[in-house]
Each structure stands twice: as structure tokens, then as C-alpha cells.
Amino acid sequence: MPLNKEIQPGDNDELTRERLQATFDTQQMAAALWGSDLARKRRELAKKVDKLTVLHDSKDMSFMTREEKLSENARKVVQMFAHVADIVEDPSDDAEMFHLSSNAIGHEGHPFGVHFVMFIPALKAQADDEQREKWLMPALGLQLIGTYAQTELGHGTNLRALETMATFDKATDEFVIHTPTVTALKWWPGSLGKSSNHAVVSANLIIDGKSYGHHNFMVQIRDENTHKPLKGITVGDIGPKMAYNASDNGFLGFDHHRIPRRNMLMRHAKVDKNGVYTKPPHAKIGYSAMVHVRSVMIGHQGMFLGSASTIAIRYSLVRRQGEIKEGSGEVKILDYQTQQHRLFPQLARAYVFMFAGKEVRELYQKVLSDMEKGETTLLADLHALTSGLKSVVTHLCVAGMEQCRMACGGHGYSRASGIPEIWGVAVGGCTYEGENMVMLLQLARYLMKAVKETKKGKSLGRLVDYLLLPQDRHSLIGRVPQGEYGPHLAAFEHIARRQIFKVADELTKLQDKGMSKEIAWQKKAVELQRAARLHTRFYLAACFHRKVQSVVDGRIREALADLYHLHLNYELLDMVNYALEDAYLKADQVDFIREDMYRLLETIRPNAISLVDAFEFSDRELRSVLGRRDGHVYENLYKWAKESELNRADVLPYFDKYLKPMMLAARQRSNI
Ligand SMILES: CCCCC/C=C\C/C=C\C/C=C\C/C=C\C/C=C\CC/C=C/C(=O)SCCNC(=O)CCNC(=O)[C@H](O)C(C)(C)COP(=O)(O)OP(=O)(O)OC[C@H]1O[C@@H](n2cnc3c(N)ncnc32)[C@H](O)[C@@H]1OP(=O)(O)O
Ligand SMILES: Cc1cc2nc3c(=O)[nH]c(=O)nc-3n(C[C@H](O)[C@H](O)[C@H](O)COP(=O)(O)OP(=O)(O)OC[C@H]3O[C@@H](n4cnc5c(N)ncnc54)[C@H](O)[C@@H]3O)c2cc1C
């Protein structure tokens, strides 16, 4: 039995030969990536979806209008829930459900796009027991469709400036929800425009003329039967986007719309019938749905990059172009060092982002169960970690996916490659759930606080313990026996620590000169976000290290270690300027890192296809002609192109309408 379990009869011979070179069992690697239980569930789930034709795309989404896309994905999501009990083992398991949705529906969106990701998590974390009974149960039972309406046309990042008002009317025991200006219109919420009938709405709580800041309210927006907007509510779709166009991201306005007082989510903050307000145990506890999405995004973005890497690496083993040795025939493009250097670091990133995604979800679950008991100590750590990871991971993912697209040459630009859509969805992640730069600055705030604690000899939290350690002056890279990578990881730590202390000192100096804290912060904002990035990249490298150490199987550990070492070298070179600034690294050490990276590209090359096969993305999930498991790319590209709506007739009406008259007139003029 070959170690690569993706080999099947009828596959492209080239890919089979590549797969036979695997040094590890791909199913065991899948278990390392997903966890053994989820890996098994994914495999079984994909087989079941294959058999259920009602869950299959009726045609390629690239050839559909937006309305067709919305309708197609509404059809599939309904079928998916109708069959869910036969397909998944545990419908309450988000990870399993995400894989089902990924196989059956894809990533362009669907009517429940925000329902499961934000609406339900907001209810779980912020609704009290009675409210959970009233809304959470029906929401889980699909009796209603919800979204999360926070962002406004004029305000997204700065939540303190949100304008939507929720004014308490003691006489009727109601809140009056109102949109005072055009900039106060809710704008962007997923599935709001045409699909949802309920929304968790962020609005300023006003009692007796006093504002208590924004809180979350449950608002029914459409009639349950007619689906018409309720009186006092204006709602619609915001129009086409870069990608994600099967989602009806929407706008929403309120004209003195009344809701019962008990529609404010009251697990933590409360308003009683006399208008007495009770503060939550933590000012930002109402932000929990955002933290939830940030935590799930890390692993999902890793999967997006993993998908793009799979497509580009498989295609690079089918595509032949040019010769390395004259006369010996065209080579597979993956045999070029430049192609390996373009793709393998992206593959390594996809692996580590998935590992980090798992770690961060574990921390999220811990904080969630603490919050249930009113305990919020770890909230700040989780906020800092998710803010940094969300920003760095989305940024590196889209940069990496762009490399994957370019590595596929012209065919990468075609929607047949599948990369444009996943790229478009992934790049949205740089903006939603907190614009990346803003979130990096949130982490920087935490790091600056951590420096203050360090100066008192204390640590602010486990994630910043390393700030207490002394700085080494010189790196040991290349000065220790070959194969030891401890000094590489130490270099990440050194670079991060140095930048964090450097910017902290600079802030102090500016303030010592009389500058206000806020202006000093502005003067150093770019350096601060750099500190946040370097801290996060150190976290990622350390996470990769922890993962490799934890693997028991020798063959898996060895293959993962190759990726890890490549990651260390590649990422260090990407930020080498920081290590050169204080002569921590010398030129010969940088050369050493480069040479070792080139060596690793060659080491990884025979395992390349098996490393992407180990993700076990089904063809249905990848939705890519270039990334097909069987490697039969060309005949299927031709088949795909023939599906284009432009090929429905040899001559399209615009020819007779515009081009023919123009050419006839031109001919007549030339005959005169
Ligand atoms: C069918 C079944 C399917 C199942 C599917 C399962 C899963 C799918 C999951 C994902 C899908 C994958 C692909 C998706 C594709 C498409 C997209 C799908 C969904 C996207 C949905 C998107 C939703 C949104 O975007 S919702 C809107 C998000 N908005 C934001 O993020 C706004 C950003 N702004 C802020 O967060 C804040 O304003 C701010 C910048 C943090 C500042 O807040 P502010 O109140 O002004 O505080 P400050 O004064 O700055 O800080 C005070 C103090 O508080 C601390 N702080 C801030 N926030 C938090 C927090 N969250 N927790 C803890 N502490 C916090 C801050 O650090 C500061 O602390 P200090 O004083 O000690 O320094
Ligand atoms: C695909 C998608 C799905 C979405 N889904 C939802 C949803 O379901 N529900 C919902 O409520 N919202 C949703 N959003 C909205 C999203 O959360 C916001 O777009 C996001 O929070 C960024 O806010 P903004 O658009 O106001 O950007 P802005 O804040 O206007 O950012 C513009 C620029 O200003 C900079 N900037 C802003 N503030 C600062 C600062 N303090 N310091 C330094 N620079 C700053 C940013 O870095 C950025 O470069 C979605 C958005 C997208 C793209």
C-alpha cells in the first residue's frame, strides 16, 4: 500500500509517480493537521456529499449572475440541513459543519453566512438564560435567520462613534431603535440584504438622555411569513463585491422602530424596567462575537492558503515548460528552483496557520467558559493574540495566494483555477473583524503595557514572558552543529523583543520631552505595528516548533520538520533587516540561512504533492480545474471553457447590433 493514500487508477501518470515518492503516510499527516477525529470525519463526509447529488453545484458559479448564485446557495444550504444528520456525526461541531459547508457550498457565501459565525455566538455569550430560550433555540433549529449588524456606513473601526440609537422608553418598557443620519445606516452585515429576518444590532443605549455606549439588541427585521421588512425598517443589498458575491451583504435603517426592553442582550449588561443600568463585568465583553470570528479565521485562512498551495503545486507537476538541460525535454515547472521558492514557503505557512488556528481556538474555549462564570482575566490576552494573528495571518495568506496564482501562469488568472475566488474571500479577512492595521495597534497597546510590567520584573501574561529574558548580542545561527534550529527561533524572539523595547523607549523619550501620550503614539504608530507583527511572527514560529515537537511518528515529524526549518529560514530572510540593524546577524550568517533554505527546497520537492494531498481537500471542495486530484487538467480546462455563457451561440447579438453595421459602413466608405 503506497504511503500516499490519494493514488487512484486512471490518474495522470506523472502525479502517480510523484505520489509514490512520499516518505510519510498522508492520512497520518492529515491527522496531524486536523486532529485524527476530524480528519476521519472529513474523509467520510466528503464521500457522503459525493453521493448526494442534491448537494452538488448545478453549474460552475463563475457562470452565474448574483441572483443565481444566491438562489443556488440557498437551495444547497437548505438541502445540506435537510441531510445533515446523515452526513455529519455532530451538527453542533463547528469544525465539522464548516467542512460540510466547504464541500457542499464553497466559500462564496450563503444565507446563513453570519448566522452561525456571529449571530449564534453573540447569543451564546451575551443572551441571558431566558433570552437563550427565546432566540438561541429557534436560531439553532433554523426557525429564523440572523445576522450581526454593527458596522455603519460612516463608522466601522471606531465603535465608540456608532450613531444608531436605542432610547429607553420607561412608559412602554421599550427601546426605540433609530437611525438618525445616512451615515448611521448599518452597512456590510453578511446575509442582511435579502436573507435574514433577525439581527443582533449594535446601538447606543440611551436612558434618560444619558448615553451608556453601544450595546447589542435583538431586532426582528422582516415578517416571518411574508419576509417583507417590518414597519420602520429599510433593508437591502449593498451591491457586488470583489468576491463573496453569493452573500447579500446589506444595509439597514430604523425609523423609530420599537422593541421590548428585554430585547437588549442582558447576560452581562442590564437595564431594568425603571431604567436602572447594570454594568458588565468587563467593558468589552460585548465584543465577544468579534473575538470568536477572529479566532476561527486563523485556521480558515490557513485552509484558504492550503487550497491555493494545493492547486498551484499539483498544477506545477502537470505543467511542463522549457528545458533545464538542453535537448532533454521540457521539465515540470516545479523543478525550477524559483517555482519551489515561490510555493513551498506558502505551503509551510498554510501548515503553521492551521496549527495556530487550533491553539487559538483552545484558548477561546477556555475564555468562553471562564466568561460564563463571570471570570474575564484572560480576555485581554485573547484579544491581543487574536488581533495580531488575524492581521498577520490574513496579510501573509493573501500575499501567499497571489504567489500561488502567479505560479500558475495564465491559467492562474482564469477563474477555472479556483484561486481568484478564494483569494477574494481571504482578502476580505484583512478588513472584516477589524481592519488589520487597527488590530495590530490593539496588540501594540498590549505589548507596551507588557514592557511596563517587565520593567517591574513581572510578566503581563504567558504570551509575553519572553520579554523578561535578557537580550543576546549575537546570533548562533551557523555556529552550532548542522541541523540545530534553536538559534533560528531565538532570532525571531530577539527581533521581536528588540523592536518592542525600542519603540517603548522611543515613546517614553517623546513623552519625556513633553509630548502627549496620544501624539507620541501617532509619531511611532508605524513602528508600533511593526512590533506587533514581529511578536506575532515569533508566536507563529514558536507554535510550529511546539507542533513538530509534539509529533510521535518519526516520518511525519521529519517531513514536518523540513517545512518548519524552511519556514524559519524564509521568514527570517523576509525580516532580516531587523537582525542586521544591531548586527545580531552577520553577512555570513545570512548566506548560511539562504543556502540552507535552498537545500530545504530540494529536500521538500519529492514530498511536495504528498504534503498538499495531506490536506485532503476533495475536488468538490477545491472547485479548481488546475488543482484536480487526478491531474487531468488540459481536457477539463477545454470542457470548462465550453461552459462559458458566451459559447451558447456562435454569433452573439452584439455582433449584429454594433460590430457588423460598423464594418459594413466602413467597407461602404472605402468603396466610394
Ligand atoms: C452553515 C454552517 C457553517 C458553519 C461555518 C462555521 C464557521 C465559518 C467561519 C468563518 C467563515 C470563513 C470564511 C468567511 C468568508 C466570509 C466572511 C464571513 C463572515 C465575516 C463576518 C464579519 C463580520 C464583521 O466584520 S463584524 C464587525 C467587526 N468590527 C470590528 O471588528 C470593529 C473593529 N473595532 C474594534 O474592535 C474596536 O473599536 C477597537 C478598535 C478594538 C477599539 O475599541 P474601543 O472600544 O474604542 O476600545 P479602546 O479604547 O481602543 O480600548 C479600550 C481597552 O479595551 C481593550 N479591548 C478592545 N477590544 C477588546 C476586546 N474585544 N476584548 C478585550 N479587550 C478589548 C483594548 O485593548 C483597551 O485595553 P487597554 O485599555 O488595556 O489598553
Ligand atoms: C466581506 C465583509 C464582510 C463584513 N461583514 C460584516 C458583518 O457581518 N457585520 C458587520 O457589522 N460588519 C461587517 N463588515 C464590516 C467590517 O467589519 C468593517 O469594514 C471593518 O471593521 C473596517 O471598518 P471600516 O470599513 O470602517 O474601515 P475604516 O475604519 O474606515 O478603515 C479605513 C482605513 O483607515 C484606517 N484607520 C481607521 N481607524 C484607524 C485608527 N484608529 N488608527 C489607524 N488607522 C486607522 C484603517 O487602517 C484603514 O486603512 C464586513 C466587511 C467586509 C469587507
Short overview:
The protein is about 55% helix and about 10% strand. It has about 675 residues and is α+β, with helices and mostly antiparallel strands.
Q: How would you describe what is shown here?
A:
The protein has 672 residues and is α+β, with helices and mostly antiparallel strands. It folds into three domains: 22-110, Orthogonal Bundle (Butyryl-Coa Dehydrogenase, subunit A, domain 1), CATH 1.10.540; 116-280, Butyryl-CoA Dehydrogenase, subunit A, domain 2 (Beta Barrel), CATH 2.40.110; 290-631, Up-down Bundle (Butyryl-CoA Dehydrogenase, subunit A, domain 3), CATH 1.20.140. The chain has 23 helices and eleven strands. The strands form three sheets. Strands 1, 2, 3, 5, 6 and 9 form a six-stranded mixed sheet that branches. A three-stranded antiparallel sheet has the order 4-8-7, with no helix packed on it. Strands 10-11 form a two-stranded antiparallel sheet. Strand 5 (198-207) and strand 6 form a beta hairpin. Helix 6 (115-126) runs antiparallel to helix 7, helix 9 (337-372) crosses helix 19 (587-604) and helix 10 packs antiparallel against helix 12 (419-428). Ligand LUWPKQH6 binds at residues 94, 97-98, 101, 107, 112-114, 116-118, 148, 150-151, 157-160, 190, 244, 284, 287, 290-291, 293, 296, 300, 379-380, 383, 425, 428, 432-434, 438, 442, 445. This is Acyl-coenzyme A oxidase.
Topology:
Layout: H1 13-19, H2 26-34, H3 36-51, H4 66-87, H5 94-104, H6 115-126, H7 129-140, E1 146-149, E2 165-169, E3 174-178, E4 186-187, E5 198-207, E6 210-220, E7 233-237, E8 250-254, E9 257-260, E10 270-271, E11 277-278, H8 288-316, H9 337-372, H10 379-407, H11 409-413, H12 419-428, H13 436-455, H14 486-512, H15 517-523, H16 525-550, H17 554-574, H18 576-581, H19 587-604, H20 608-613, H21 619-622, H22 633-642, H23 653-671
Parallel strand pairs: 1-5, 2-5
Antiparallel strand pairs: 2-3, 3-9, 4-8, 5-6, 7-8, 10-11
Helix pairs in contact: 2-3, 3-5, 6-7, 6-8, 8-9, 8-10, 8-12, 9-10, 9-16, 9-17, 9-19, 10-12, 10-13, 10-16, 13-16, 14-16, 16-17, 17-19
The chain binds ligand LUWPKQH6 and flavin-adenine dinucleotide.
Residues 114, 148-151, 156-157, 188-190, 244, 249, 428, 431-432, 434-435, 437-438, 441 line the site of flavin-adenine dinucleotide.
GO molecular function, one term: FAD binding
Domain Acyl-coenzyme A oxidase N-terminal: 25-145
Domain Acyl-CoA oxidase C-terminal: 489-663
